[in-house]
Amino acid sequence: MTDQMQRVIAPERTDVMGVGVDALTMDQTIDRLREMIATGKGQNHLSVNAAKLVAAIEDPTKLEEFNQGTLVSADGQAVVWAARLLGRPLPQRVAGIDVMNRLVDLSAQEGQRIFLLGAREEVVGRVRREFTARGANVVGHRDGYWRRYMTDAEMAQTIRLLDVDILFVALPSPMKEDFIYGFREAMNVGLSVGVGGSFDVVAGRTRRAPAIIQRLGLEWLFRLVLEPRRMFKRYAVGNSKFLWYLVRELLRRG
């Protein structure tokens, strides 16, 4: 990681291999997001795990997207462990799906307008019904295949016209970060939140690891057991790269 890349990290953030991560607990994260929704438009919350950290190291564009994010949380336990090894500890993992659920409950109390973007139509439709049943004001949704019938700019304009307070974007990386970062001004949303595969969990298509597995930081192993064909290459290659970059950083600092 070059010194030039490191300098773009905001001083209040924790530098984890060149990516700036906000050193906040879950409760502190929700408090900060609540303030962000109330104070302005075009803000965003991004989550970083081992795979995204590797992508940021290897692609300056991705690095910029994360380091220009309004709030960046450690979604992966590996990021928390890496920060600790580097002598820059983070207080805890802040899982994206938990952030989403907390914001949904908050919106039910405070009336924020929510838009859901991503996943298959049957999935996002089910998530909308679930969130509405919890009292949230979901003003619209669109599946993750809108490019079949409209451009990204048209999608952003659709969201803008609905005066959205919270936009949940359930797309794979890097499409999720690219859309949030590239259209943050065009959408004029209070807060855009990248939530990855969280819609599939809410809709019951994907099982989340038991709480004890989550606490041990082994959700990746749980997913590997459930989906070995799909996840093996991702973890074998991605985790190996992550470990290599971590060792390189430790040696560089050492």
Automatic annotation (TrEMBL):
Xref: CDD domains: Glyco_transf_WecG_TagA
Lineage: Bacteria, Bacillati, Actinomycetota, Actinomycetes, Micrococcales
Domain of life of the native organism: Bacteria
GO molecular function, one term: hexosyltransferase activity
Protein name: N-acetylmannosaminyltransferase
Organism: Kocuria palustris PEL
Keywords: Glycosyltransferase, Transferase
